[in-house]
Design goal:
alpha/beta, 5-stranded parallel β-sheet, Rossmann fold, globular, binds adenosine monophosphate, 190 residues
Length: 190
């Protein structure tokens, strides 16, 4: 399997680049943020629980996210690969993902980290908030999410760097230029 983790702060372009990678490499896209927003819309117990964390810019508890991921992985069947978008966000989640994939006799092929300056992230997220009205794309919550990224999520990069599969790409450039770099990183592992 070709399994990718797309990593980076909120607003780095993970969703945009995931869509392009899915199309090029025929991957299944698992975005924990999308799954949580859909649960919130449906008003499920997980959605109701997650809402308070999301709207406060906090991470949803590891147990809830990992349980959700286990369900998604059960339904994979004949997938030729997966792109994990917005997951893992803690070292604990990264360890859990490794164990889950080992049970399926597979693992992460490459971790693609997209870097963008804080100022640009804030501008992008405010713009997205104005366009599509995500409840967590307002200045107060954006600032909290960036702090959470730096304190709780950034160490995930070190986890994959130790595994020798982390690649960092400058995400401040045009979408297609960033995409070309990501594809080079993936192709070098095929
Ligand atoms: P995203 O769409 O990836 O920006 O995620 C939106 C929000 O969902 C995040 O700010 C978190 O509150 C929550 N979330 C998404 N993925 C995770 C995760 N892997 N671990 C914890 N919380 C998550």
């Amino acid at each position: 399997m070709l399994n990718l983790v797309i990593f980076g702060p909120p607003g780095a372009g993970k969703g945009t680049q995931s869509a392009k990678l899915v199309e090029k490499y025929g991957l299944v896209h698992i975005s924990t943020g999308d799954v949580l927003r859909s649960e919130m819309e449906k008003g499920t117990p997980n959605g109701i629980l997650a809402k308070g964390f999301i709207n406060n810019g906090k991470l949803v508890p590891d147990e809830l996210i990992i349980g959700m991921l286990e369900d998604k992985l059960k339904n994979l069947k004949d997938a030729s690969g997966v792109i994990f978008d917005g997951f893992p966000r803690t070292t604990f989640q990264a360890q859990a993902l490794k164990a889950m994939l080992e049970k399926l006799n597979t693992g992460i092929t490459v971790m693609l980290s997209i870097t963008v300056s804080d100022d640009e992230l804030i501008q992008r997220l405010l713009h997205r908030g104005a366009q599509c009205g995500r409840s967590d794309d307002n200045l107060e919550t954006i600032n909290k999410r960036i702090v959470v990224y730096k304190t709780q999520t950034a160490p995930v990069f070190d986890f994959y760097e130790k595994e020798g599969i982390a690649v960092s790409v400058d995400g401040s450039r045009e979408i297609d230029i960033v995409f070309a770099d990501l594809c080079n990183a993936v192709d070098s592992k095929l």
